[in-house]
């Protein structure tokens, strides 16, 4: 009884070794032409802003409002497009209410 089990086990091991692993060897679709995700460098406003922040060309102030305004300027987003929603029913106290900035 033990020999058939060993034979089956060995057959499975050999099959696992010999069967091509097509799924494991295929590249992900986003790594192929025309996307080439990992090989390309992004060229967008966020990447540009990140470069300027790292180099020190753009500095963000300490106050929250000034940081938001500086980011809006750097991202070319109009202040008029912003809305602040205050929730009276938030879990914070009256003194520390929650404000959510929404880009419209």
What are the defining features of this structure?
single chain; 104 residues; alpha+beta; two-stranded antiparallel sheet; 4 helices; elongated
Structure characterization notes:
Strands 1-2 form a two-stranded antiparallel sheet. With 104 residues, it is α+β, with helices and mostly antiparallel strands. The protein has 4 helices and 2 strands; from the N terminus they run ααααββ. The mean pLDDT is 76. The chain is elongated. It has a domain at 45-104. It has helices at 2-18, 22-25, 45-55, 64-74; strands spanning 82-87, 98-103. The longest helix has 17 residues, at 2-18.
> Strand-and-helix sequence, N→C?
HHHHEE
Major sheet:
2 strands, antiparallel
Mean model confidence by pLDDT: 76
Number of strands: 2
**End-to-end distance:** 73 Å
Strand content: 5-15%
**Low-confidence runs:** none
Radius of gyration: 28 Å
Approximate shape = elongated
Alpha-beta classification:
alpha+beta
Strand order of the largest sheet: 1-2
Proportion of residues in helical segments = 40-55%
The total count of helices amounts to 4
Brief description of this entry?
The chain has 104 residues and is an alpha+beta fold.
Sequence-ordered SSE layout with sheet pairings:
Layout (H helix, E strand, L loop, with lengths): L1 H17 L3 H4 L19 H11 L8 H11 L7 E6 L10 E6 L1
